[in-house]
Amino acid sequence: MVISFKDGIKFIGIIIIVFCAVFVCTMFLNYQSDLVKIKQLITTNEEIIFYNAQLSTSKVVCGASGGCLAATSVVMLIFYIKHYIDTHRVHLGILKALGYSDIKIAKHFWVFGLSVLVGAVAGYALAFAIMPVFYSVQNADGVIPSVTLRFHFPVFIYLVILPTLIFSAFAILYALIKLRQPALSMIRETSYCTVKAKKSRENKNTERSFLRELKISNLKNKKALVFFIVFSAFCFSAMVQMSVGLRDYSGTMMVVIVMLIGFILAFTTLFLSVSAVINGNVKTIAMMRVFGYSDKECRSSLLNVYRPMALIGFIIGTLYQYGLLKIMIEIVFKDVSDLAVYKFDYIAMILTFAVFAVAYELTVYLFSLRIKNLTVKEIMI
């Protein structure tokens, strides 16, 4: 089995997310490893408070940002593998019919782990490149003795080697599970448009009924796309608001970095989810255009139906980031005095939602224009 260059391009989402996760975690874990080496030099009460605050900040940022990014990478890897198997069902079914076992086919999916390796290496390298600046900013006022930058091989193992091996093994295991179906059912062609119109009566009520049924069926039969839209909105909401929520508990540089990573992750997942929705409905849209439905009706029935799902994902992301930060800050920073109490930021939520709404609608509109220019022949081919 050969994974084409076109399929490899789709791994960019995982590469970007892993890059962001490793970039953040490398800086803080490496700084934490070097920080503990000067513990015996910390003597005054002011130095002890600052030292403990630095360690606590590292734990919060790595736990919140790194954990969320790692979970996002797993979800996207699952989506990519499922999408690859679904779009290559016939070819994989033929291989099974020729006698190839599931494990023999599934083991080739280790290639998906290479995207994790590329992202991890890039994130680790960039983190080390700017780490001298990061170290100086963390102790800009000279409250504690200077922290010397060192290379920690265990950090490299935990953030580069282990994730690559784990994700590769996970890709093989998940592919093996998805391949456990009869070869004949994989070879047999299936229809993309699962909604059938009832007997036409040439009136408005019947047409509206069909479009309503199409909306419901589209949500029921494309659960993976629904989940991806919800998840992209979740990532956008959680990461952007989380970066704002950290402003009182870390330095300005860290807030900017986390916010930048939040926006990169948010727009990446949003772009990939909307593109997946468009591509997943392209043949249905083509058939609707053949039967005379307008572009507005196609968007309303097949694309706008995902808007409430995106809103649900945004709400879940808002609640998640608030609960996660509140729990972690109250636990990790419980011994730090004169610390600002973490409260829900309504202004940040409103601004984040406004940015998300504009980005989502603009992305859907731009993709809709691309489909509008496609001929039915091009789509069906």
How would you describe the overall organization of this protein?
The protein has 381 residues and is an all-alpha fold. The protein contains 16 helices and no strands. Helix 2 packs parallel to helix 6 and helix 3 packs antiparallel against helix 10. The protein is globular and about 80 Å long. About 5% of the residues have low confidence.
Strand content: under 5%
Radius of gyration: 24 Å
Identify low-pLDDT runs: 190-207
Number of strands: 0
Mean residue pLDDT: 76
The major pleated sheet works out as:
none
Give me the number of helical elements.
16
Structural class by helix and strand composition: mainly alpha
What's the order of the H and E elements?
HHHHHHHHHHHHHHHH
Which range best describes the helical content: under 10%, 10-25%, 25-40%, 40-55%, 55-70% or over 70%?
over 70%
Molecular shape: globular
Distance between the termini: 22 Å
Outline:
By secondary structure, the chain is mainly alpha-helical. 76% of the residues lie in helices and 0% in strands.
Describe the secondary structure blueprint for this structure.
Layout lengths: L4 H5 L2 H24 L9 H43 L1 H9 L4 H5 L5 H27 L14 H26 L4 H5 L16 H18 L1 H23 L6 H29 L1 H9 L4 H9 L3 H26 L13 H27 L3 H5 L1
Helix pairs in contact: 2-3, 2-6, 2-7, 2-11, 3-7, 3-10, 3-14, 6-7, 9-13, 10-11, 10-14, 10-15, 11-15
Name a few traits of the molecule.
globular, about 75% helix, mainly alpha
